[in-house]
Amino acid sequence: MKSSETRSSGRVCYESLLRFGAHSSDLNIRKTVRNAPRGCYGFSHGFVPRGMTLRNGRYYLRRHVPIDIRPIIGRLEVWRSLKTDSLQIALRRFPLAAAALESQFERIRNDAGLSVDRTLLRPCEDDLADDGASVSRSKDGEALSLACAYSRYMDDPTHGWSASTRQAYETTRRFAVGVLGEEVAIAMLARSHCRDYLEFLRHMPRNAAKRFPKLSLREASALARRQGDIELISAANANAHLANFSSFLNWAVNEELLARNPMRGLRLPDEVSKRDKRLPFSARQLQSIFNAPLYRGCLDGERGYSKPGPERPRNARFWVPLIALHTGMRLNEICQLDTADIREVDGIFCIAVCEQSQDGSGDKALKTVASERLIPVHSTLIRCGLIQFARRRREAGLSKLFHEIDPGPRGKRAVAFSKWFTQFTRSCGAYQPRTSFHSFRHNFRDQLRAARVDHDIAMILGGWANGRSSGAVDVTPSFPP
């Protein structure tokens, strides 16, 4: 045999190495006799590199999690979609996907304080992107991380968020970045990441930060999964986080940071129907609330509100539940009322629900555009003295009708009052699951139906989304001098 023939029999094509990679000293590839490779520039379904697998007609990178970081990740293996059904394309993408995954493993070791290879910590310059899309990069040329992309999203000036909406999105950002990792490249987010986030939320304890302050979010979720007896957030709450995260991913797609939204369609089944999430107060509950010492006579309007006594205070604790029952107003709408918002319009006393503050502080906010409206003051409220109460406070130079309600660090007076009201319902025996202050609003809606109030009028009175008040009355306040 010629020497040239001897050399060629043991020679490995360089392009094959690029396509398949090398394991130990040989190409570790599966080979079938009937489907042999067609030379250096051919390819065959019989030749698939170790770690690549075909599932449901799509190619995936399948990798066992290294033993030293399995307790951190909590899984034995990970899958990364190569996002193609073409073997030729999958072979080209496979080395990049494997390199990106190795780099991610190394970052996990680094965050855990384990020994690392600093070279692997540097992000790959050509990370695998969806269907060949270019990888999003920061100004310094590195692959844009999830944390950086989320910061851009939160700071985008095109968002017209209210303070409460921004807070909700900020909570979701903290959850998502904390669970998926700050350094994961935004372009590398896959369905598996979204599934992992959903599984985290499915076992997330209620008030985890307060109940388990020494645990990370993922550790708290894992603890709840193991024990099985820890109260979890509701499916509705989890789905709200999933929807917020999906909104961020939609933004990333629009900003060309991501080819498609991998979160689309993922949500948890909610066994409680939307109509039954909150119930109206029952007749017995309403009797317990308005026959409590606060309304029949108590020691005082502060600490002694739950004990019988000679005092009948006329403060926020007395008025806010009464107003809610007879107007259907939202809690924050009541708590932020100005004294000038109780006014007479065409001979009828009304409550003006509006955003403009009497003192110009800008501390008032409405949930929707439809929330701005005029509500006639119920005769029961007039008999109880609401008009005189507002006049006295106005004459005393107070701009806020319920100035004693603490606005809190974020300026939402409803937060403090809601906590007190929960304590109040427990003290008077009215507390029941799936009822809260918002139940007054359901009571109001039910009474509108029972009275056969015209649908459009009912929607305007309640400030519901498909009601329109702008064409009915002018709620612009005319503040007294």
Quick summary:
This protein is mainly α and 481 residues long.
Description:
A hairpin with a 2-residue loop joins β4 and β5. The strands form 2 sheets. Strands 1-2-3 form a 3-stranded antiparallel beta sheet, with helices on one face. It has a 3-stranded antiparallel beta sheet with strand order 4-5-6. The model is unreliable at 1-45, 124-135, 467-474 and 476-481 (pLDDT under 50). The protein contains 20 helices and 6 strands. The protein has 481 residues and is mostly helical.
Topology:
Elements: H1 3-9, H2 14-20, E1 52-55, E2 58-64, H3 70-73, E3 77-81, H4 87-111, H5 118-121, H6 146-154, H7 163-180, H8 191-202, H9 208-211, H10 217-227, H11 235-254, H12 283-290, H13 293-296, H14 316-327, H15 331-335, E4 342-345, E5 348-353, E6 373-376, H16 379-384, H17 386-395, H18 413-427, H19 439-450, H20 455-462
Antiparallel strand pairs: 1-2, 2-3, 4-5, 5-6
Q: Report the C-alpha radius of gyration, rounded.
A: 31 Å
Helix fraction? 40-55%
Strand content: 5-15%
Strand order of the largest sheet: 1-2-3
SSE string, helices as H and strands as E:
HHEEHEHHHHHHHHHHHHEEEHHHHH
Question: How does the major sheet shape up?
Answer: 3 strands, antiparallel
Overall SS class: mainly alpha
Provide the descriptors you would attach to this structure in a database record.
single chain; 481 residues; mainly alpha; three-stranded antiparallel sheet; 20 helices; 6% strand; disordered C terminus
